[in-house]
Specification:
single chain, 207 residues, alpha/beta, Rossmann fold, six-stranded parallel β-sheet, 8 helices, 10 strands
Length: 207
């Protein structure tokens, strides 16, 4: 993983990039930058582990779908996230060449990252960086998606295979419960979002 090359590539694609040695430092930075705003959070293990809802909700209006205990509540909050001033999420993989990749089942996480906000933050552990876009797509499909499915113990072939063999693999299944229904490649910053900031954390974070 070439971090310097990754940062340079992201900057060439018009992202603002900040790099932190720990998630605690990144959390403190975000807490200092986002104040008095409406904030939407994507369904992200990285954001959950950083406890950003607890931090930011002390001085912002924060919508987090994971604060709901049922699917209807999740969807209702996820819709509110699409109209906030600030949106925070992560990605499933990133290439050293500056592209980022996300897989989504419901679509709220991807939708919120593309349009409608003053600013979007992508918070990414360096464990998600691959050399090429092709390797990043492979990681998103064959590492991140199965791990996310395993988190929910879904009745999908990738979960069954992991329980049997301990190996992560996408089977491109037809199960209605599958969570890899859409995949987006961010080739560069979206035009109509004033600032998109990539927060790189030099730790293993999320899936």
């Amino acid at each position: 993983m070439n971090l310097e090359r990754t940062i340079k590539s992201l900057e060439q694609k018009f992202y603002t990039v900040r790099c932190f040695d720990s998630h605690e430092e990144a959390t403190a930075y975000l807490d200092s930058q986002i104040d008095g705003k409406t904030v939407g959070l994507g369904d992200s293990r990285t954001i959950i582990d950083m406890k950003l809802y607890d931090k930011l909700s002390k001085h912002n209006i924060v919508y987090d779908p994971n604060q709901s205990t049922d699917n209807d509540g999740f969807l209702a909050i996820a819709r509110k996230c699409l109209t906030t001033e600030i949106y925070l999420t992560s990605v499933n993989a990133m290439a050293e060449t500056g592209e980022m990749v996300n897989i989504d089942g419901t679509g709220n996480r991807v939708a919120g990252s593309l349009f409608g906000h003053e600013k979007v933050y992508f918070i990414v552990g360096t464990n998600k960086i691959e050399s090429t876009l092709e390797e990043a797509v492979f990681r998103a499909r064959n590492v991140a998606a199965p791990k996310n499915s395993l988190k929910y113990d879904l009745p999908t072939p990738c979960v069954a295979n992991y329980k049997k063999t301990g190996k992560l693999k996408c089977f491109d299944c037809r199960r209605p419960e599958r969570i890899c229904n859409g995949i987006i490649t961010y080739m560069r910053k979206m035009n109509d979002i004033e600032d998109v900031e990539v927060i790189l954390i030099n730790e293993e974070m999320g899936f």
